[in-house]
Protein: Abasic site processing protein
Amino acid sequence: MCGRYSFTQVAEAIADKFQVKEVPEISPRYNIAPTQQIATVLVNSESSERQFKMLRWGLIPSWAKDAKMGAKLINARGETVAEKPAFRAAFKKRRCLILADGFYEWHTQDGEKQPFYFRLENGEPFAFAGLWEHWEKGEGESIESCTIITTEANELMRPVHDRMPVIIDSKNYEQWLDPEVKKTELLQSLLQPYPTEEMTAFPVSTKVNSPKNDRPECIQPI
Structure:
């Protein structure tokens, strides 16, 4: 699964990397947790252009009776995402990029949990494969939310955990975001483990265990 990650990029870098025209200044985040507002890129249904948008992490299906359901849907398995009732509508027409530059996973040994930080070898920002949804309750409450798709772990990840978030190759951003692309087989072919040789990982401080700690020390090797 993916339950914690970082995104520390400035607006100019975001606009350049993800080809978005308008990006607000956002604060660097070193320990992003579920139910928080997170940076995404999606296609605007009216202009058909890429749009930067902050969404709540934890997808709330449009048919959900309660927004609390989103806390249980922070991840979606790539192998079944096209079939699950909570995700299949979004998978067809509401796909997004969830912006990141690293993520955490915990390895348990002798009863102790050691956090590890995973990022690209070149240190550049990247995007998780995401889905987003619009939810309303009556006239007073409206939430736009999202989930991160996961897949089987690559060789780097496997000693720590058997799952990892799907990192979309930049050459596939266009296909992934395009709501006109609907073929399940094509879309699922993009949901592969990221190449091991292009990633690196190292242990970090247990300070990351608490979402209250959102500081640069979280991503420093120990």
User: Anything to note?
Assistant: The chain has a mean pLDDT of 96. The chain is about 10% helix and 35% strand. Residues 11-18 form the longest helix (8 residues). The first strand starts at residue 5 and ends at 7.
